[in-house]
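Review session, final week

We close the course with one last complete record, chosen because it touches almost every idea we covered. It is Alkylphosphonate utilization protein, a protein from Halodesulfovibrio spirochaetisodalis with 111 residues. Go through it on your own first, then we will talk.
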Amino acid sequence: MENLPNCPQCGSEYVYDDGSMLICPECSHEFTAEDVAERVYKDANGNVLVTGDTVIVIQDLKIKGGSGAIKKGTKVKNITLVEPEDGVHDISCKIPGFGSMFLKTSVVKKA
């Protein structure tokens, strides 16, 4: 039996192959095997990032709805890479003095 990926929408393991498409019988989501390929996260310099890395912010970042800004050179430890819900912010982290927030990989470099 083939080793098919779980449904990317609902996580169901009962996916079946229908020619060129994979179909989930639980949520009716149709997708291809390329749609669920593992994503590679890269920093502003093209270095591959993994969960747990330490990164450095490469530009001043204004905080929407907050006071102050995250200064260039701020070190962020133990990042978590996430699938972006908004399509943009793919790092979840805690920044000292600011708390939990999301960042773009394009504004950080690997430490």
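Two points worth writing down before the exam:
The two ends are 44 Å apart (CA to CA).
The mean pLDDT is 89.
Good luck, everyone.
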